[in-house]
Protein backbone atom coordinates (compact mmCIF):
# COMPACT_ATOMS: atom_id res chain seq x y z
CA UNK A 1 0.00 0.00 0.00
CA UNK A 2 1.34 3.43 -0.85
CA UNK A 3 0.46 6.83 0.51
CA UNK A 4 0.81 10.21 -1.23
CA UNK A 5 1.15 13.26 1.01
CA UNK A 6 1.84 16.90 0.25
CA UNK A 7 5.48 17.95 0.54
CA UNK A 8 6.66 21.22 2.06
CA UNK A 9 9.91 23.18 2.28
CA UNK A 10 10.94 20.97 5.22
CA UNK A 11 10.90 18.00 2.81
CA UNK A 12 13.39 19.45 0.32
CA UNK A 13 16.30 17.32 1.58
CA UNK A 14 14.29 14.12 1.03
CA UNK A 15 13.27 15.24 -2.49
CA UNK A 16 16.92 16.02 -3.27
CA UNK A 17 18.06 12.66 -1.89
CA UNK A 18 15.63 10.76 -4.12
CA UNK A 19 16.55 12.89 -7.15
CA UNK A 20 20.26 12.21 -6.60
CA UNK A 21 19.59 8.46 -6.38
CA UNK A 22 17.19 8.19 -9.34
CA UNK A 23 18.68 10.62 -11.85
CA UNK A 24 22.03 8.87 -12.45
CA UNK A 25 20.15 5.60 -13.00
CA UNK A 26 17.45 7.16 -15.19
CA UNK A 27 19.70 9.45 -17.24
CA UNK A 28 23.21 8.03 -16.78
CA UNK A 29 23.33 6.50 -20.25
CA UNK A 30 21.51 9.44 -21.89
CA UNK A 31 23.31 12.51 -20.50
CA UNK A 32 26.92 13.33 -19.80
CA UNK A 33 27.84 13.47 -16.11
CA UNK A 34 28.40 17.21 -16.54
CA UNK A 35 24.88 17.76 -17.89
CA UNK A 36 23.44 15.52 -15.18
CA UNK A 37 25.15 17.55 -12.45
CA UNK A 38 24.13 20.83 -14.10
CA UNK A 39 20.47 19.81 -14.34
CA UNK A 40 20.30 18.42 -10.79
CA UNK A 41 21.69 21.71 -9.51
CA UNK A 42 19.39 23.77 -11.75
CA UNK A 43 16.19 21.89 -10.87
CA UNK A 44 16.84 20.55 -7.38
CA UNK A 45 18.89 23.23 -5.61
CA UNK A 46 17.54 24.47 -2.28
CA UNK A 47 16.65 27.77 -3.95
CA UNK A 48 14.83 26.23 -6.94
CA UNK A 49 12.78 23.82 -4.83
CA UNK A 50 11.97 26.46 -2.20
CA UNK A 51 10.72 28.83 -4.91
CA UNK A 52 8.64 26.15 -6.62
CA UNK A 53 7.05 25.01 -3.35
CA UNK A 54 6.49 28.42 -1.75
CA UNK A 55 5.14 30.04 -4.92
CA UNK A 56 2.99 26.98 -5.67
CA UNK A 57 4.61 26.79 -9.11
CA UNK A 58 4.31 23.05 -8.61
CA UNK A 59 2.58 20.99 -5.96
CA UNK A 60 5.01 18.47 -4.54
CA UNK A 61 3.98 15.18 -2.99
CA UNK A 62 5.97 12.47 -1.27
CA UNK A 63 5.22 8.84 -2.06
CA UNK A 64 5.58 6.39 0.84
CA UNK A 65 5.16 2.69 1.33
CA UNK A 66 4.58 1.19 4.78
CA UNK A 67 8.24 1.68 5.70
CA UNK A 68 9.68 4.81 4.11
CA UNK A 69 9.51 7.56 1.51
CA UNK A 70 10.06 5.93 -1.88
CA UNK A 71 9.51 8.77 -4.35
CA UNK A 72 8.03 12.15 -5.16
CA UNK A 73 5.96 13.96 -7.74
CA UNK A 74 5.69 17.58 -8.81
CA UNK A 75 2.50 18.54 -10.62
CA UNK A 76 0.78 21.70 -11.83
CA UNK A 77 -2.98 21.95 -12.24
CA UNK A 78 -4.49 24.48 -14.67
CA UNK A 79 -1.31 24.31 -16.75
CA UNK A 80 -1.09 27.35 -19.06
CA UNK A 81 -4.61 28.27 -17.87
CA UNK A 82 -6.06 25.18 -19.53
CA UNK A 83 -7.88 22.13 -18.13
CA UNK A 84 -4.58 20.24 -18.00
CA UNK A 85 -2.52 18.80 -15.15
CA UNK A 86 1.18 18.82 -16.05
CA UNK A 87 3.34 16.18 -14.40
CA UNK A 88 6.68 17.95 -14.08
CA UNK A 89 8.40 15.35 -11.91
CA UNK A 90 7.75 11.74 -11.03
CA UNK A 91 10.51 9.64 -9.54
CA UNK A 92 10.39 6.38 -7.61
CA UNK A 93 13.43 4.70 -6.07
CA UNK A 94 14.86 2.00 -8.36
CA UNK A 95 14.15 -0.85 -5.94
CA UNK A 96 10.41 -0.07 -6.07
CA UNK A 97 10.11 -0.33 -9.84
CA UNK A 98 8.18 -3.26 -11.24
CA UNK A 99 5.94 -3.49 -8.16
CA UNK A 100 2.98 -1.60 -9.63
CA UNK A 101 3.64 1.57 -7.64
CA UNK A 102 4.07 3.74 -10.72
CA UNK A 103 0.67 2.72 -12.05
CA UNK A 104 -0.94 3.49 -8.67
CA UNK A 105 0.76 6.89 -8.52
CA UNK A 106 -0.52 7.77 -12.01
CA UNK A 107 -4.03 6.71 -10.99
CA UNK A 108 -3.81 9.03 -7.97
CA UNK A 109 -2.50 11.90 -10.11
CA UNK A 110 -5.47 11.31 -12.44
CA UNK A 111 -7.87 11.57 -9.48
CA UNK A 112 -6.21 14.81 -8.29
CA UNK A 113 -6.38 16.17 -11.84
CA UNK A 114 -10.10 15.42 -12.13
CA UNK A 115 -10.74 17.04 -8.72
CA UNK A 116 -9.07 20.16 -10.17
CA UNK A 117 -11.21 20.10 -13.34
CA UNK A 118 -8.47 18.83 -15.64
CA UNK A 119 -9.42 16.92 -18.75
CA UNK A 120 -5.89 15.82 -19.67
CA UNK A 121 -2.56 14.80 -18.15
CA UNK A 122 0.61 16.07 -19.80
CA UNK A 123 4.26 15.19 -19.25
CA UNK A 124 7.62 15.57 -20.92
CA UNK A 125 9.91 12.57 -21.26
CA UNK A 126 13.42 12.40 -22.63
CA UNK A 127 13.21 10.80 -26.07
CA UNK A 128 15.71 8.11 -25.01
CA UNK A 129 14.19 7.37 -21.59
CA UNK A 130 13.08 3.75 -21.17
CA UNK A 131 10.04 5.02 -19.21
CA UNK A 132 8.57 6.01 -22.58
CA UNK A 133 7.14 2.49 -23.01
CA UNK A 134 5.66 2.55 -19.50
CA UNK A 135 3.87 5.82 -20.26
CA UNK A 136 2.51 4.38 -23.51
CA UNK A 137 1.14 1.36 -21.59
CA UNK A 138 -0.67 3.81 -19.30
CA UNK A 139 -2.38 5.38 -22.31
CA UNK A 140 -0.13 8.39 -22.93
CA UNK A 141 0.48 9.35 -26.55
CA UNK A 142 3.25 11.46 -28.05
CA UNK A 143 1.79 14.82 -29.04
CA UNK A 144 4.95 16.80 -29.79
CA UNK A 145 8.73 16.59 -30.09
CA UNK A 146 10.58 19.44 -28.39
CA UNK A 147 14.15 20.59 -27.77
CA UNK A 148 14.33 22.84 -24.72
CA UNK A 149 17.43 24.94 -24.12
CA UNK A 150 18.35 24.91 -20.42
CA UNK A 151 21.58 26.89 -20.48
CA UNK A 152 25.26 25.96 -20.60
CA UNK A 153 24.72 24.73 -24.17
CA UNK A 154 22.49 21.89 -22.98
CA UNK A 155 19.21 20.75 -24.49
CA UNK A 156 16.39 18.66 -23.09
CA UNK A 157 15.38 16.45 -26.01
CA UNK A 158 11.85 15.48 -25.07
CA UNK A 159 8.57 14.11 -26.24
CA UNK A 160 5.48 15.79 -24.87
CA UNK A 161 2.97 13.09 -24.03
CA UNK A 162 -0.69 13.51 -23.22
CA UNK A 163 -3.50 11.38 -21.89
CA UNK A 164 -7.18 12.33 -21.91
CA UNK A 165 -9.03 11.83 -18.64
UniProtKB/TrEMBL annotation:
Assigned GO CC terms: ribosome
Q: Which CDD domains match?
A: NAT_SF
Q: Which UniProt keywords apply?
A: Ribonucleoprotein, Ribosomal protein
Indicate whether Ribonucleoprotein appears among the record's keywords. yes
Superkingdom of the source species: Bacteria
Against InterPro entries, the record matches this protein to: Acyl_CoA_acyltransferase, GNAT_dom
Q: One short Pfam family name for this protein? A: Acetyltransf_10
Q: Where is the N-acetyltransferase domain?
A: 2-165
Q: Which Gene Ontology terms cover its molecular function?
A: acyltransferase activity, transferring groups other than amino-acyl groups
Quote the protein name from its UniProt record: GNAT family N-acetyltransferase
What is the organism field in this record? Flavobacterium resistens
